[in-house]
Design a protein that fits this description.
InterPro entries: Ionotropic_Glu_rcpt (IPR015683), Iontro_rcpt_C (IPR001320), Solute-binding_3/MltF_N (IPR001638). This protein is of the alpha/beta class. 51% of the residues lie in helices and 17% in strands. The strands form four sheets. A five-stranded mixed beta sheet has the order 9-8-10-7-11, with helices on both faces. A three-stranded parallel beta sheet has the order 4-1-5, with helices on both faces. The chain has a two-stranded antiparallel ribbon with strand order 2-3. The longest helix is centred in the middle third of the chain and has 36 residues.
């Protein structure tokens, strides 16, 4: 309701005002501005100086109106909006989504940025051994592997006894004999080959060796195909290509953000983080499978960190708009700030800022 009133009031008063001075009745006024750091909308350089698209736009508005600005930082959007609601600050600056619920507590200016949520994934990682092991167990392959291990042990013992009985050149040391037999059995399993026994029994030895070759090739093919099958299944089932694939996965969100609210409403398992750096760290550590946040934030981070192997996938969902938030009642700033913002949009200043931070991607 506050948003609608602000827009309606802006339209009427703008028509009544005959010059720019009508929108700045309190030039020289000291304005308390709250912000939350979230690149590319609010950033700090190495010297602590504030920058970013939202800050640059606000400072241009303040310059146009002749305001003196003091800044205060807040950790999350809810605290920032609460400060605006209570009058602790005069303006909340940043990537602040305009929602019906928020507009019941604070006033919003004209929207200045089209936003929405997207999904970020880590494409640099590979399937872990634990994932493969679990997949093999779920598919029942580990039980088969257990039988193969038992067969290898029995084959090693049997081959040792066989060679000690029939091969006069075979070592008399049990330890050396078992080791030699185990090596021979593993050659069968891994390479499908076996030191020839044909010299022991002529044609019968050749058939014996051929029999072991067939077994070895079959065992090796079975192990290879089962592992490949599990890895393929993991890639298909575990891959996240957009918002429709998030169910069943732990998802990183920013604490107090619209992304957190949307994900929880959809029953997604969420993990809250203070900023994109912390969320990306969790993603790369496999603590979460994806990040859901403002599309512009994720796209900017990806572009600034090309070597991280991150990708922003899928469509933009839950579209919304960003605006500046002001106290809902008795704010003398809503009208001049909104009219000046409209002027900067018409002059192309906002478009220039958007190209500065996002190029021609948006």
């Amino acid at each position: 309701m506050g948003l609608a009133i602000a827009f309606a009031g802006t339209g009427v008063r703008a028509q009544d005002s005959g010059d720019a001075t009508a929108v700045a009745p309190e030039a020289g006024k000291e304005v308390r501005v709250g912000y939350r750091v979230s690149a590319p909308f609010v950033m700090r350089d190495g010297e602590g100086k504030l920058g970013g698209m939202a800050v640059q736009l606000w400072e241009k508005i303040a310059e146009e109106l002749g305001y003196t600005v003091t800044y205060a930082e807040y950790p999350h959007i809810p605290e920032l909006l609460k400060a605006a609601e209570t009058g602790e600050i005069d303006v909340a600056v940043g990537g602040i989504s305009i929602t019906e619920d928020r507009a019941k507590h604070v006033d919003f200016t004209q929207p200045w940025f089209d936003a929405g949520l997207r999904v970020m994934v880590d494409e640099s990682g590979t399937t872990s051994f634990g994932d493969i092991w679990t997949g093999l167990a779920d598919a029942g392959y580990l039980k088969s592997y257990g039988w193969l291990v038992l067969i290898i042990i029995l084959s090693t013992i049997g081959l040792t006894l066989f060679d000690r009985r029939f091969d006069k050149n075979f070592t008399k040391s049990w330890r050396e004999g078992v080791a030699a037999s185990f090596y021979s059995v593993m050659l069968v399993v891994t390479k499908g080959s076996l030191p020839s026994r044909s010299s022991l029994f002529g044609w019968m030895g050749k058939i014996f060796s051929a029999f072991w070759l067939v077994i070895g090739i079959a065992v090796f093919a079975y192990i290879t195909s089962s592992v490949t099958s599990v890895m393929t299944s993991l890639a298909i089932e575990g891959g996240i290509t957009g918002p429709d694939d998030l169910n069943g996965h732990p998802i990183a969100v920013f604490t107090g953000s619209i992304g957190e609210e949307v994900m929880r409403n959809e029953g997604i398992d969420t993990r809250g983080y203070d900023d994109v750096d912390a969320a990306v760290e969790a993603l790369r550590a496999n603590d979460v499978d994806a990040i859901v946040a403002d599309a512009a934030v994720l796209e900017y981070y990806k572009r600034q960190n090309p070597g991280h192997g991150l990708d922003v996938v899928g469509r933009i969902f839950h579209p919304d708009k960003f605006g500046y938030a002001l106290p809902y009642k008795d704010s003398s700033l809503i009208f001049p700030v909104t009219v000046t913002l409209l002027k900067l949009q018409e002059d192309g200043f906002v478009d220039q800022l958007e190209k500065q931070y996002f190029g021609d991607e948006r």
